Amino acid sequence: VLAEKRSLGSRDGPPHLVVLVPLHSKAAAHDTLCLLQSQDSAVVRVDEGKAGGFVLLCPRLKQRWRFVTTEAGDLHAVLDLAKVADSLLFVLDPAEGWDSAGEHCLSCLFAQGLPSYALAVPGGADLPPKKRIDARKKLAKAIEKRFPEAKLFPLTTEQESSLLLRHLATQKQRHLAFRDRRAHLLAYAAEFVPSQESDLVGTLKVSGFIRGQSLDVNSLVHIVGHGDFQMSQVDSPPDPLSLNPRVVKGLKRSQDMEMQDDSVNGTSEMEEDIKVLMKADPSKQESLQSEVVPDPMEGEQTWPTEEELQEAEASMQANRRVVKVPKGTSKYQAAWIVDDEEGNQEDDDDEDDEFDDDDDMMEEAVSQEGESDEEEEPAEEECETMTISESLRDDQYDEKVEEDEQMLEKYKQERMDEMFPDEIDTPRDVPARVRFQKYRGLKSFRTSPWDPKENLPRDYARIFQFQDFSRTRKHVFRQIEKGETEGASVGWYVTLHICNVPVSVMESFKEGKPLVLFSLLPHEQKMSVLNFLVHRHPSNSEPVRAKEELIFHCGFRRFRASPLFSQHTSADKHKLERFLRPDTALVVTVYAPITFPPASVLLFKQRSNGMHDLIATGSLLSVDPDRIVIKRLVLSGHPFKIFTKMAVVRYMFFNREDVMWFKPVELRTKWGRRGHIKEPLGTHGHMKCHFDGQLKSQDTVLLNLYKRVFPKWTYDPHVPEPVPWVRSESVVPLQEVEME
């Protein structure tokens, strides 16, 4: 522990990375930065060139810090910086603490994993001493729920800022498991070199201090928010934040200033001092292949050889004959013509079929055109009324009303699913044996067998599966613990040459957004089926249906996907849930790149205005395509006539054939009786049933049907930037703010 604490921020370790997060719109973040910079004469201040960021070098204390600022409303920047930060410095308002945006930011940070932190309260000097003490007591009581044992650091003088720096340097570091097992760095400088083929793709040279683990040039790197890439080489440029006392301070400061200006411009003038540490070996380099390319003829056993194809072609040429055929006849049709009369007759039949097909296609086209015209009519009307301001407001109001109606319908469906779980009405226009032909009955949902390899979808041919995932995970982690990875060590200042990077990555870096890199463990670029264990977040109460598009923040990745919800049980089959339940833990299943747990997960839902709402938090449960998710349907009927152990049931089916089809499936009732169908009565779906006891007249007869379901392949690694959170100046939970 002592060695770890001494290496952080020292000459041999990476600088102590501190991220400033103002949790209130009135929080004096600028005053905090000024106080942290105004240290004694032994501290060298280096302006970083980015908005609000700077570096503190203290050769006397042999410490160096890098401070990066962000806004609580910029969700992606806060979460990305918290993934690599050594400490978080929360800046509070002396009167109100944090607002709604700060509350939302804290909820996301606690769910992702909070590193070491400190609470600073700048300002408050204009208040009288008595009111200042009362305000501090109120603030300490307000933060007790979020930070039970935290200490508030007032920031009004240079001495208090020195105490805060000493606390940041000496406090115990909190570990995040998903980053401690992977090499990661925050870009200090970057340069983009376009490729010869296109200016949109090129080599990105990223410079920074390695943290976590050693970095191998043959492994893959993940740029947070942009994807996975390969490296070509790793360089070792001079350390711009060196604590070497032999360097003259004035010269050192000028060199640092030049380096910062060059980092902003994306160039480096110290290339003559750069040493190449290692270059990628193509034979050992990890592949970027994320999916298996399925061969549709892989299971074909009767495919002819080339010799057989040649023999067939020769026999066809030998058997060719010249016949007289009508105009427009294909070669395939001509091969079946025996004489002219039969040929003409067959041709007429084909033409009739073609006309029938054309008529069907014309009807479909007309219906589609009618639907498209109906869909386009509101758009045309909307375009016509855009010139009138009053109608514009009316249209916008109507759109909101339509959204409210859709949300009301969701609430009704969620309520009905809670009251009558999985129950549906038997259709009258389609036979039940046709409508539910993919479903089956089970003697016992818990003990009846279900083959996990049965009737797999085509998407399962594109994913990877481990023979034993836990064994592979232990083997990979054991190699990390042994330190067998060869490469750039922790604390080195290196430049990574990343291949085939789009220019948008450099553009976002120039805009001031953080550029965070993580190295990938073996197999982590490959697609599979991931299962997350999540709880509904109390700040959100809107209904969330299964297969709705959600935004995932899983460890160091973020992506969009449409998940399935299922119950978390110890059985081999798990029942599908149609909605995300607020009162229980559920398992979320998606197609996504493999990630070795432990890893935290945050689920967001994007609003129509672009804001991201936190709806659930949890952790990665497993990577298992064989996890069986079963959808249950419940058909209900009502007792018509009741005898001792016999009953006539109606309204479950509406024809005799359906009763005979579902006769082998066991029945149950809501009051605990069990039975089976004995015989149909009449032709309108009435049936005689036998139960293990006498039914009550208010009881309901149920029949359960089951089908295995799979997630949709909707994985999208590109997540749009969220709109900043709307601030509300009060220290209250988010649900109360939304209710107001």
From TrEMBL:
Domain of life: Eukaryota
Compositional bias per record (Acidic residues), positions renumbered to this chain: 338-363, 370-384
Coiled-coil annotated spans: none
Ranges of residues in domain Bms1-type G: 14-174
One of the GO biological process terms: maturation of SSU-rRNA from tricistronic rRNA transcript (SSU-rRNA, 5.8S rRNA, LSU-rRNA)
GO molecular function, one term: GTPase activity
Location relative to the cell: Nucleus, Nucleolus
GO CC annotation, single: nucleolus
Stretches for region Disordered: 281-308, 334-400
Recorded family membership: Belongs to the TRAFAC class translation factor GTPase superfamily. Bms1-like GTPase family. TSR1 subfamily.
PANTHER family hit by this protein: PRE-RRNA-PROCESSING PROTEIN TSR1 HOMOLOG, RIBOSOME BIOGENESIS PROTEIN
Function according to Swiss-Prot or TrEMBL: Required during maturation of the 40S ribosomal subunit in the nucleolus.
The name this protein goes by in its record: Pre-rRNA-processing protein TSR1 homolog
Organism: Heliornis fulica (sungrebe)
Species classification: Eukaryota, Metazoa, Chordata, Craniata, Vertebrata
